[in-house]
Amino acid sequence: MSAGPDDSGDIRVLAVDDHRLLREALCELLEMYDGLTVVAQADDGPSGVRLAGLHRPDLVLLDVEMPGPGPLANLRGIRQAAPEARVVILTMHDNRQLIDSLLSAGAVGYLHKEVDREVLVSAIRSAMAGGTTMFLSRKASGAGPERGPAPADTLTLRERELMELVAQSMSNRQIGSRLGITEGTVKRHLRNIFDKLGATSRLDAVNRTFPSRRY
């Protein structure tokens, strides 16, 4: 059976990164998008290989700066455990020699961790469609500085109402039930809020929406 979305149409993602906060924020971000489901998280290469074999994800986001066997060994292990999975490399460095070696070993994409969330999601979907995607850092690509986050007062009343529920640690399903909207609509609202605030996680969005509070 070839790799691809499950019966629900979702792309099943495994995230492998030893930086827990960044990994959890990344997974939280992906879950905001329709058609993406994070099936597992791993904090090192060997765990990533084991979980790849267990869950057989459609796509693996693989960090290269982790202690252990090294990026090439991790990539080869994952491809052996889940040969149908597509592997996209994540890193903070623009090492072209390493990039080329990983692409030669079977990775289908390379993303610098500075990329915008829309680029990340687009790269995942491109990889699943058979494309090869590479995005280097802003410095390496010559891109200009990022815009600063918009102030919280740009949020609509509905968006602030939704953020009040996020601050209460409600899930998307619980928020939808409370507001009488679908879970997909909650996700769309959250994407808009994240874009307006420049937020990277739900907690970050809450803190930017209610800066006078402590969470």
Features:
alpha/beta, 10 helices, 6-stranded parallel sheet, 215 residues
What is this structure's SSE topology?
Elements lengths: L10 E6 L3 H11 L5 E7 L2 H11 L3 E5 L7 H11 L4 E6 L4 H9 L4 E4 L4 H12 L4 E3 L2 H4 L15 H11 L4 H8 L3 H15 L4 H8 L6
Parallel strand pairs: 1-2, 1-3, 3-4, 4-5, 5-6
Structure report:
- The chain has 10 helices and 6 strands, in the order βαβαβαβαβαβααααα.
- The chain is of the alpha/beta class.
- α5 (117-128) links the parallel β5 (109-112) and β6 (133-135).
- α2 (45-55) runs parallel beside α3.
- The longest helix is centred in the C-terminal third of the chain and has 15 residues, at 183-197.
- The radius of gyration is 18 Å and the shape is elongated.
- The model is unreliable at 138-150 (pLDDT under 50).
| Number of helices, where a helix is a run of at least 4 consecutive DSSP H or I residues | 10
Shape: elongated
Average predicted local confidence, pLDDT: 84
Major sheet description: 6 strands, parallel
- Tally of DSSP β-strands: 6
Q: Cα distance, first to last residue?
A: 45 Å
In terms of DSSP E residues, the strand content is: 5-15%
Structural class: alpha/beta
List the strand order in the largest sheet.
2-1-3-4-5-6
Secondary-structure element sequence? EHEHEHEHEHEHHHHH
Radius of gyration: 18 Å
**Relative helix content:** 40-55%
Low-confidence sequence ranges: 138-150
